[in-house]
Amino acid sequence: MDLLLDTGKLKITEDGDLVLITETSQHVAQRLTIRLNTHVNTWFLNLDLGINYLNEIFGVAKTKTSIDALIQQEILKDEMVSRITYFNIS
Q1: Which of 75, 82, 85, 88 counts the most CB atoms within 10 A of its CB?
Q2: Looking at the domain assignment, is residue 56 inside a domain?
């Protein structure tokens, strides 16, 4: 089990207890949020985690199709994701 994050901070009850993730969907969503918000080479425990936003997303004339593919590839790297059934970024 993981601790639940709420807008990047640990979620704490009114009693001061930490909140644990109980649903698989919450767990996957939080893992992907962290993965997609991490810039490659910035987390010392796994320098490959994340996206190279500077070169791969904000680089010269990237198409939406290539950016979508890059993000989907990163999502599929997560061990809890076996496939993507729907994907839409607007």
Answers
A1: 75
A2: yes
At 34-47, the pLDDT tens digits run 999 999 999 899 99
Q: Judge whether 52 lies within some domain.
A: yes
Does residue 90 lie in a domain region? no
d(C-alpha 17, C-alpha 12), whole Å: 5
According to DSSP, the residues that pair with 3 across neighbouring strands are: 20
Cα distance between residue 12 and residue 61, in whole Å? 43
Question: How many domains would you assign to the chain?
Answer: 1
Q: What token pair was written down for 84?
A: 């993507």
Regarding pTM above 0.85, the answer is: no
Question: Helix crossing, 24-36 with 64-76: angle to 10°?
Answer: 130
Q: Answer yes or no: is 88 within a domain.
A: no
